[in-house]
Design goal:
Blueprint lengths: L1 H18 L3 H15 L3 E6 L6 H9 L16 E5 L4 E6 L11 E3 L5 H10 L4 E8 L8 E5 L8 H9 L6 E5 L8 H10 L6 E5 L8 H14 L5 E4 L2 H10 L2 H7 L1 H12 L3 H29 L6 H59 L4 H41 L2 H6 L28 H24 L8 H87 L2 H26 L9
InterPro entries: Dynamin_N (IPR045063), P-loop_NTPase (IPR027417), TRAFAC_Dynamin-like_GTPase (IPR051943)
Organism: Halosaccharopolyspora lacisalsi
Protein name: GTPase Era involved in 16S rRNA processing/predicted transcriptional regulator
């Protein structure tokens, strides 16, 4: 069987990786070995963030297996395959060195999204999420993989997607129909066509884009100009959901999904052997090329060294060590300055937002009566503060990305690429930890109090004007004195009502101010904890990369010294061994190249 020959070739290459202590390449070949023996047909769903990849997978299997939404970004790949019962498990990454140690943790399928978010927040090295569903569309071996966005600000997400490209039987590039293909998308498509034999472009969201047919035609021209052979499938996940709910075949056809599924079935049929050959040929050849490059470098170092050559190599290594120290000082200063600036800016940002809310509180309470509008006022105040908290944490997340880029610029290029992406910062909810502001005490004005207030005000008016009119011969109680008393009594009553209203407004204003100050205190604590954790994570990641660089330089110095001290006999023997090994690897490399021409047998 062809699988026997392919597995034998992979095992031979894996043995060479183990002999040269390249466990990272060995782990990669183990994954390829599993793909060769697995009859499933893997289809990768790729694209930039927020293009509808997860929603597309959900629509194909008619189940919300992938976390989808406007503010949700796929962090780890999600594999969806057939199983008799619904199931879900989190798979941790294999170690870069040492034997494979995949850790599979079953989780309830209804909680899989929460478990993934918690694992990422805890810093667990997740490799992927695997979902099993009893779906007819998956029964014949179709396996879908929802991948992190490519071309995004996070280079590690792009690397995660590209690392599985060579394992795929087919690839669906998702770019919504609201706009034509971007330059980055066309560039990515051009790259993947060399690695994956079957590529198609899927354009969702046709239900919200009246001009989607024009966009499809423009994209078809772009593909022709870029010499990319790929079919285009315009689809609508919302129409697909409506068709499934109503069991309407006509509506399902309008969604575009039947044509897409038929394409996958026709492209996958009877092509497993051809795809397996291409998969093994590419990966084994690439692994062997890396091994042979390392051996050729070692072979060139086996020639007798002069004292001058050894001294130059040691000086170069020392220069690299000095450069690494300077780089370490630069990224530490950049990180320290950035964190201190972040503390100040975030605190000022939220203070400024709450001051604007306090100003609005003063304007509202200078006009409204808290006794009648308190419920609406409290709801508005909570909503405004919640928006301010979300905006502040959103800005903090943007600053996190910017600070990560600034620190990465201070590292060596190879170190910057290895810098891990930090988890997205989510807003806290301080309103749940702070008691709601209390409404002002009920300020009723009973009828008897109003009468007494009016009498007190009218008494002076009657007496004063009665005495004045008595000089004109009129009695104390006359029309003028009584009218003046009524007028002054009404004025006293209105003044008392205004006084009570102002007291209620002042109490409400003080309660709102205390509530806002309490929220500010909680948010400052949450942001400081978040920034402190960001500082620790970035410092640990950069420090780990710096230490790795120091170890590599130290090993280089030791190897240079050993090579200088090695005898001519030892060098000649090692050179013969390397040449023999290179001949063996060259033969193995030719066998790998013969795979694509169907000229290999067990």
């Amino acid at each position: 069987m062809i699988e026997t020959a392919l597995v034998e070739l992979i095992d031979r290459a894996a043995a060479e990786c183990a002999e040269q202590h390249r466990f990272d390449l060995g782990n990669r070949l183990r994954q390829i070995r599993g793909r060769v023996l697995d009859p499933a047909q893997l289809v990768l769903v790729v694209g930039e963030s927020q293009q509808g990849k997860s929603e597309l997978v959900n629509s194909v299997v008619n189940a919300p297996v992938c976390n989808a939404g406007e503010d949700i970004t796929t962090v780890v790949p999600t594999i969806v395959r057939h199983s008799t019962e619904p199931s879900a498990q989190l798979v941790q990454q294999e170690p870069a060195q040492g034997p494979p140690a995949l850790d599979r943790r079953p989780v309830p399928i209804e909680r899989v999204h929460d478990e993934v978010e918690q694992a990422v927040a805890d810093g667990l090295p997740l490799s992927r999420t695997e979902i099993g569903l009893p779906r007819a569309v998956l029964r014949d071996g179709l396996v879908l993989m929802d991948t992190p966005g490519v071309g995004s600000i996070s280079s590690s997400l792009t690397a995660t997607t590209q690392s599985v490209l060579t394992e795929a039987d087919a690839l669906l590039m998702v770019s919504d129909s609201t706009q034509e293909l971007t330059t980055n998308e066309l560039k990515f498509l051009k790259q993947v066509t060399d690695l994956c034999p079957n590529v198609a472009l899927v354009q969702p969201k046709t239900d919200v884009t009246p001009r989607w047919r024009e966009i499809v035609e423009v994209n078809r021209k772009h593909l022709v100009q870029a010499e990319i052979s790929a079919r285009i499938f315009p689809v609508s996940s919302k129409v697909r959901a409506q068709a499934t709910s109503a069991k309407n075949p006509t509506l399902n056809t309008e969604s575009g999904f039947p044509a897409l599924l038929e394409y996958l079935r026709s492209e996958m049929a009877n092509k497993h052997e051809q795809l397996a050959r291409k998969l093994v040929s590419h990966n084994v050849s690439e692994v062997l090329d890396q091994l042979m490059t390392k051996l050729r470098e070692e072979l060139s170092n086996q020639s007798p060294r002069t004292a001058t050559e050894t001294l130059l190599e040691l000086e170069n290594a020392q220069h690299k060590a000095d450069d690494l120290k300077r780089i370490s000082g630069r990224w530490q200063k950049t990180l320290s300055d950035g964190i201190q600036e972040l503390y100040s800016d975030i605190e000022y940002d939220f203070r400024e937002r709450t001051w604007a809310i306090l100003h609005q509180v003063d304007e509202v309470l200078s006009e409204a009566d808290p006794d009648t509008t308190w419920d609406d006022f409290a709801e508005w105040l909570s909503s405004s503060l919640n928006d301010a908290v979300s905006e502040t944490f959103g800005w903090l997340d943007q600053r996190r990305e910017r600070l990560t880029e600034e620190v990465a610029e201070q590292l060596l290029p190879e170190h910057a690429r290895a810098l891990p992406s930090l988890a997205e910062i989510h807003p806290s909810d301080p309103l749940e930890r702070v008691p709601e502001p209390k409404a002002p005490k009920a300020a009723g004005f009973p009828r008897k109090d109003q009468i007494l207030t009016g009498l007190r005000g009218s008494y002076g008016g009657v007496l004063m004007f009665g005495l004045i009119t008595s000089m004109a011969g009129l009695p104390l109680m006359n029309v003028v004195s009584i009218s003046a008393g009524l007028l002054l009594g009404s004025k006293s009553l209105n003044e008392e009502k205004d006084s009570r209203l102002k007291r209620r407004q002042a109490e409400a204003r003080n309660a709102a101010q205390r509530y806002i100050e309490h929220i500010v205190f909680q948010v400052n604590k949450d942001t400081r904890d978040t920034i402190r954790k960001l500082h620790q994570n970035l410092h640990q990641a950069c420090n780990r990369l710096t230490e790795q660089g120091q170890i590599e330089i130290s090993q280089s110095i030791q190897e240079t010294k050993r090579a200088a001290e090695a005898s001519a006999v030892d060098r000649d023997q090692r050179a013969r061994d390397i040449k023999k090994k290179l001949e063996e690897l060259t033969v193995l490399r030719k066998r790998a190249a013969m795979l694509t021409s169907n000229r290999i047998a067990a």
